[in-house]
Amino acid sequence: MPAVSKGDGMRGLAVFISDIRNCKSKEAEIKRINKELANIRSKFKGDKALDGYSKKKYVCKLLFIFLLGHDIDFGHMEAVNLLSSNKYTEKQIGYLFISVLVNSNSELIRLINNAIKNDLSSRNPTFMCLALHCIANVGSREMAEAFASEIPRILVAGDTMDSVKQSAALCLLRLYKTSPDLVLMGEWTSRVVHLLNDQHMGVVTAAISLITCLSQKNPDEFKTCVSLAVSRLSRIVSSASTDLQDYTYYFVPAPWLSCKLLRLLQCYPPPEDGAVKGRLVECLETILNKAQEPPKSKKVQHSNAKNAILFEAISLIIHYDSEPNLLVRACNQLGQFLQHRETNLRYLALESMCTLASSEFSHEAVKTHIETVINALKTERDVSVRQRAADLLYAMCDRSNAKQIVAEMLSYLETADYSIREEMVLKVAILAEKYAVDYSWYVDTILNLIRIAGDYVSEEVWYRVIQIVINRDDVQGYAAKTVFEALQAPACHENMVKVGGYILGEFGNLIAGDPRSSPLVQFNLLHSKFHLCSVPTRALLLSAYIKFINLFPETKATIQEVLRCDSQIRNSDVELQQRAVEYLKLSSIASTDVLATVLEEMPPFPERESSILAKLKKKKGPGAVSVTELEDSKRESGELNGAGERGPDPSVMAASNASTPSPSADLLGIRSAAPVSNAPASAGSLLVDVFSEAGPAASSGAVNDDGFLSSAPPSEDPAPPLSEAEELLNKFVCKNNGVLFENQLLQIGIKSEYRQNLGRMYLFYGNKTSVQFASFTTTVSCPGELQSHLNVQSKPVEPLVEGGAQIQQVLNIECLTDFSDAPLLNIKFRYGGALQNLTLKLPVTINKFFQPTEMASQDFFQRWKQLSQPQQEAQKIFKANHSMDTEVIKAKLLGLGMALLDNVDPNPENYVCAGVIQTKSQQVGCLLRLEPNAQAQMYRLTLRCSKDSVSKRLCELLAQQF
Amino acid sequence: MIGGLFIYNHKGEVLISRVYRDDIGYVLLQQTCGKSSRFLGNSCYLGVNMRNAVDAFRVNVIHARQQVRSPVTNIARTSFFHVKRSNIWLAAVTKQNVNAAMVFEFLYKMCDVMTAYFGKISEENIKNNFVLIYELLDEILDFGYPQNSETGALKTFITQQGIKGQHQTKEEQSQITSQVTGQIGWRREGIKYRRNELFLDVLESVNLLMSPQGQVLSAHVSGRVVMKSYLSGMPECKFGMNDKIVIDKQGKGGASDDAGKSGKQSIAIDDCTFHQCVRLSKFDSERSISFIPPDGEYELMRYRTTKDIILPFRVIPLVREVGRTKLEVKVVIKSNFKPSLLAQKIEVRIPTPLNTSGVQVICMKGKAKYKASENAIVWKIKRMAGMKESQISAEIELLPTNDKKKWARPPISMNFEVPFAPSGLKVRYLKVFESKLNYSDHDVIKWVRYIGRSGIYETRC
């Protein structure tokens, strides 16, 4: 709006505005406005034509009323009329009104567009600028449709004034942002790029904004801008501060232009042309050098401008990530800023360092600043800067300094701001896990974490501790001890109680030997926390109690007493009540061996990428995941599983280093269900070929469809069964479910059910790594004459197993006649480059087809006598391998599948069982007698079956079990 | 119970602030605690809270973008009840679930009391009398519970003269105490007048919404009986009117022709409320209104009727749109009462469209003018006798706009004053008995006046 001067000013408008301002109340204001509107209406309606001045005045008043928040539904026509005026002020007000009040009124839009077109084609630069500004301010689709083709012409025309060019560039940018599909650069591209060479710095500045935006969308078309930008930049950087006159800002030559140029360069990879690259490196070096020079002015504007360029240059260096020398220099420069007086600079330095830490060249250089960063974390006054410092610590952490950093972060956590605590906790948890050299340190760290900032420890963190403790038997004892000690603190956090309850419930027995932590002491300790906890924790504690009953029978009475009391068994919370009732019944009714089976130690968790990492990522929002973390986790993925007593598997390490076949999503530990498309899979397998000694047949198998896979024999022979296969088999004689096999890569779980002569077995193949398994195949074979005894049908499995994923296979088993061997399971897959091949015995034994038979003492002995032929009987006397606990033995015998008969044998110490083995061809009756001798730790096992081969086989199998 | 009472000016500045309950905190605490550090953080916090509440009302009601039409506003679980008198906002604030009618009754009473003490309620007057207002607030609200708000009674002990030279005698003090705490709190003993006079006004406002065809869509009369009594001693009064129930009851006992005659004249009162001096038990049992009147001016009763209303004026509108740019309006008003009576202050307001660019008016009687600031043609007639009619015609020029919305045609409204009660209410008697002092009903000079005004009196066009 033009200044209201006496000559050209609009007195009526000034009076009106002052009237409005003097209004005492809203009503008075509305009245005044109504009056003015009526006046304007009558003026516009009036027969005699208004002169330009009054038209301008009234349009201006309308605009003012509109800006006060009232609807204006007339006057558009008058405003459009103003556009055709030759006076600058009138035209200006007209355009102002249009850009504020335009709506998609078709007839008016046509008129407006006409007026704009006239102005654009006039040679008057002021009018052209006004028109361009109006287009940019409205920026609607209609405008884009009408002028998208016109503006580039103005932009690149040789005779266009510089100021118009600037406006045109920015106007085009606006149109491109609103409707990119309408702005087609096409033939103009190269000429627009050449605007970078324009004499006028203003034009270059405006053009760079446009080019940056355009090249982000289609980088290839604008590739040529790189060399131009570099030369422009070098000219600016090398110019003396006086060269650019108008564009020198506090002794810094064209700072905005430089920043924009550097930002434009960040859209592209490093220039391939050596000369250009050399020139650019030179520029960057000059910028870095200039930062070292003493400031030419004490003014803050000078240093701001200088630093702005510097930071953009550093971002570019980080973006290129190819010049070790520059990276290190940038890092050192940032290191100086870390102690700068300006908070903003410290913040920016920390932020940039974070990205620098991810570069392999500068990681070490960043690490040298660790003391400063830790100091910043402790002393910084601004919370956002502290947050950055914590981020940087996280980013610069590696195996060498993990202990120090984690310790520092832990100690800072005690005083940290509430807003960043949860994130800090997650970070500490991740670092502790990722760089854990020995797991007792890990356990210590996490327990400390819970102690210090229990409220901020999310579920995921303590889940993870338990997963790790369960999966590694070497820390279990230590964990139990530490937790026990931690729980002794007078006040401990609920999360600590949860961890404590879980770990003591599982591994309390490991420390029970010490009288200071005898079972009863443990229980009392846990129970002393019970009443202070919330419902979920109480539920967990109840489970821990029942586990105690199993672990320490001597605590049974005490715990039952606790469970029986009204506050448990009649608890108002359904979950707690149910648990109390069920556990009480379980402990009092079930026999010890049932209890032992039900409350068996937790099986190891399927190994997978930490869920904490996923949580951190979710917290920071998508896109915030820095490359560092990805690469770190890639780098460390091998170590994570391999660390500890086993040591990293060299082949695995080699594989993960040699090939990077998996998409990054796998590394995040998010178990993505989305199947990976075929293309990367085949690419992966091609890569694999280079590194594996396998022939081409194998790689073709990887990409072929399922039908081919299952029928075609694999090129390699199945590996011989593992040496421990027999042992594994024995584990499953008396149970149907469990983990069949596990190594660093793969875990195979098993679940089976049998009815009569039929069985169904579910195999679960879990990928413990973060890399997918390619060409995963499984074959079940029945060697030798087993083929005629047992019929096993399997469905083929998916050839790809994603990292951390699990696939399932179903086997249908039919027992044709009795058998003694076990079917073989051969598994082949490619992990990284290496072909993995292993063969296992499937735990299918004859006893699985047992049908229990109940009979009285009389019947039993009658049948016993009937099976009196010597070949029908098999007997074995052997030493006990396990404890001779009655309940355990009973549980095992029941697991065998036979009926355990009470009150049959005159000696109550002895166990007697009966059952019928169902095969397709016949039924085999079996009787069993097991006589333990507790003193000698010996057993005598006698089996009598209607078929002699069965007795022998059963006797072999069972002898291993006790 | 009211938590606090605030009076704002039109800018939203707090002129009077009186807090009765802690749950809404105290606005001044904020300022006090800024000055002295003796206040603990907690009370500061409270102050901040209240500050928020006071600001909340200003932001959400006084300075709201849209006009707030509801007199009750709930902001952050705090209820604000407000009434507006010219440019002044009175807001009662509470956190509890109070009887809203009670709060408004109190606010109106508060306005009456203030008017009785210092005339018109304006920012100027409130600023000049703030000490008095705080004194009044102390008296008429205790812990947020309304107390005696009878102006006459209040005036005996809250005076504008300040404390007089000599202190009030013990007698006077005890008299005040016994009166304020006694059974008849609204009247003191020992009043004496040379002339016993009594003024009785029946003030009614008639509300109407009529369709263009002359069909009554809704109509009701809300009336008040206001009295001014200058009577000596402790007189017992009895007020009688043509209430249908009373007349019918009497008709049953009396002659049958009398009942037929009075049945026509009696009115059906829908609901009514009384001044506290009226003996409600007697009203309930005998439907007779008997009371010991306060001294001075007071409102004896309020009532509402909806049946058999005499509509003093009939408005017949005729609106014709000629093309997009012209509108012809013709409005006829007819007076519908006895020719001997004169209506006064008649004003007809004809709304004009928002895109009016010019108006020509011709009227036979009175003056008519287009008021742009109100978007209406205002036609004023000073006087008009009954059974007459008058007409106005106007030509409105319109500016074509690109607004597609059609004009909503707001109703034509009307204001007037007539010297009768549109509800048909008649005062049958007002008897005064004073047993102790020696004057009888005949010695009292009584004046009765009827005034009917327009409330919202609208006709659609």
Q: Could you name the key traits of this structure?
A:
heterodimer, A: 962 residues, alpha+beta, Leucine-rich Repeat Variant, six-stranded antiparallel sheet, five-stranded antiparallel sheet, 44 helices, disordered N terminus, B: alpha+beta, Beta-Lactamase, Immunoglobulin-like, nine-stranded mixed sheet
What does this structure look like?
The complex is a heterodimer of chains A (962) and B (461). Chain A is of the alpha+beta class and 962 residues long. Chain A contains 44 helices and 16 strands. In chain A, helix 12 runs parallel beside helix 14 (255-265), helix 17 (324-337) runs antiparallel to helix 18 (343-356) and helix 29 (535-551) packs parallel to helix 32 (574-589). The longest helix of chain A has 21 residues, at 300-320. Chain B is an alpha+beta fold. Chain B has three domains: 4-28 and 47-157, Beta-Lactamase (2-Layer Sandwich); 197-249 and 266-309 and 437-459, Immunoglobulin-like (Sandwich), CATH 2.60.40; 313-401 and 408-418, Immunoglobulin-like. Chain B has helices at 27-35, 41-62, 100-118, 123-128, 130-140, 151-157, 170-181, 244-253, 256-265, 280-286; strands at residues 4-8, 14-19, 72-75, 78-85, 88-94, 141-142, 145-146, 197-210, 216-230, 236-241, 271-274, 289-291, 296-305, 313-322, 326-335, 342-351, 356-363, 367-371, 376-385, 389-398, 412-418, 427-433, 445-459. Chain B has a nine-stranded mixed beta sheet with strand order 11-13-9-8-23-21-16-19-18, with no helix packed on it. A five-stranded antiparallel beta sheet of chain B has the order 2-1-5-4-3. In chain B, a hairpin with a 5-residue loop joins strand 8 and strand 9. Chain B is globular. The two termini of chain B are 45 Å apart. The chains are: A alpha+beta (962), B alpha+beta (461). Chains A and B meet through helix 2 of A and strand 17 of B.
